[in-house]
Amino acid sequence: MAALPIMAQTGGNPSSWALKTERTAGGPEADLVVRTGDINNLGFGWPAGFDPFSGKSTGHGYPWKPPVGAPAGTDRIMLGSVVTQHDIDSRNGDGYAHTTKRSETMPEPVTLAVGALPARIQSVVFQMFLDDFQAPVWNSRFQVSLNGTRIPSFEAAVNSLQQTGPIGKLVTLKLMPEYWPLLRSGTVKLLIDDPTTHAPDGYAIDFVRVLVNPHPSKYQVTLRASVTDAATHAPIAGANVQAALATGATDRTGHCVLSGIPAGLVVAEATAPGYDQATMPVDLEAGRTGDAVFALHRHQEGAADLERSIKETGSAAIYGIHFDTNSATLRPDSAPALAVVLTLINGRPGSRWLIAGHTDNQGSAELNGRLSKARAASVIAWLTAHGVAAQRLVPQGFGAMRPVADNSTESGRALNRRVEIATAP
Q1: Which of 120, 236, 361, 421 has the fewest CB atoms within 10 Å distance of its CB?
Q2: Cβ–Cβ < 8 Å for 122, 211
Q3: CB 19 within 8 Å of CB 34
Q4: Angle between helices 365-385 and 335-346 (to 10 degrees)
């Protein structure tokens, strides 16, 4: 690929915001910054002196036509790809959905011409100026992918947003190291779509940036976090809380403080062994301190729980299937979880299922790949021995390549060691 031109800094230099694409190597913000989409509030412009990187809010009107020359996926209203005109006419939805034509709102990926990466990568973040995402309001369920690979942490973040207004905000998300190879092709397509729910939830993207080895942000905020058990209200010590590149562990009172976070919609995530992950957005302007209050639920793996997870996310993670260390032999205490999976599969006669093994990042990639495949095969062997036709089951092994949490913490590694099930096409 030919070398891309090095252009001006983006975040702190409004004179460059009109550029529809930028690439800055060795600049003040990061070792590499790549942007697609001009920084112009979806074509409406900013108030005098307004800086969208400061975390301040500003609104705009709607509907609107995409400005001429706007890069694909930016400055336009989009709806989930399965939404039909009948859905728009017959279901409750937001103003974007009910003031646009379905033919003009199909999701489009935002393409980032990343080019050559720095020789050494220490961290990667994506910054997206997102507008009017309202999954908790309209029960939509967005999927976020890079070059066709879904990024679970990005999906959790986007599905936590409640941007009624409409109001656009900067969201800064850490890309976990296992997904960095997706950048090495030189071109990255980021797609946000809701391909399952038919919810008329319109949304828009002003711009997307990827920062490789980012430097401290010009506009920073601080987050106070508390983590408790949702059932007992007792504090959870040792829970991990992460927002952008900041991370911390809760003390015995269930509290921690994260600092140096880029301003905007700060999306914080809390994890603890034995609990479901939780994600929470906190709207913070530069220089301010906000609170994220997490009440974590114990992970449940009944048939109804698995059904709900598959409906909401397309798959279900199972932690009750246990193996000895570095072994694919099922332990006896796996029987209850396997029985639930069997009930779920038998409840859908004729369906086909993907059975996927996942590991944490401890050990070599080759070993983890073999181990995850062998573990998936062991689960399938148990299911076929209990009456499920082998042709209905498809084994997969991803090793550590598709984490759902940060492998740098024990709670994250525990969440990554899992078996996942999903319906197969």
Answers
A1: 120
A2: no
A3: no
A4: 60
Beta strands 149-150 and 204-214 are unpaired
| Cα Rg of the chain, angstroms | 22
Total-model pTM: 0.91
In this structure, the number of other CB atoms found within 10 A of the CB of residue 102 comes to 16
Q: What is the 3-state secondary structure (H, E, C) of 40-87?
A: CCCCCCCCCCCCHHHCCCCECCCCCCCCCCCCCCCCCCECCCCCCHHH
d(CA 398, CA 263): 35
Q: How far apart are CA 55 and CA 170, in angstroms?
A: 7
H or E segment to which residue 391 belongs: none
Output the pLDDT for position 7: 34
Domains annotated for the chain, with CATH where assigned, are: 14-214 (no CATH), 220-296 (2.60.40.1120), 303-423 (3.30.1330.60)
CB 133 within 8 A of CB 78: no
Closest by Cα among 307, 306, 299, 247 to 278? 299
List the 246-249 sheet strands across, edge first. 246-249, 240-243, 264-271, 278-284
Mean per-residue pLDDT for 59-77? 93
232-252, pLDDT tens digit by residue?
999 999 999 999 999 999 999
Beta strands 143-146 and 124-131: pairing type?
A: unpaired
- Nearest-angstrom CA–CA distance, 279 and 157: 6
Q: Are 70 and 43 in contact (CB under 8 A)?
A: yes
Which residues lie across from 266 on neighbouring strands?
282
- Closest listed residue to residue 162, CA positions, set 202, 128, 141, 135: 135
Question: Has residue 139 got a pLDDT over 90?
Answer: yes
Digit-coded pLDDT (tens) for 323-371: 988 899 999 999 999 999 999 999 999 899 999 999 999 999 999 999 9
The token duo for 208 is: 């997307």
Q: Quick one: which of 160, 143, 161, 165 has its CA closest to 152?
A: 143
pLDDT band at 12 (very low <50, low <70, confident <90, very high): low
My answer on whether omega of the bond before 195 falls inside 30° of 0, hence cis, is no
CB 406 within 8 A of CB 412: yes
Distance, in Å, from the CA atom of 190 to the CA atom of 192, rounded to the nearest integer, reads 7
- The strands making up 110-113's β-sheet, listed across from edge to edge, are 110-113, 187-193, 143-146, 149-150
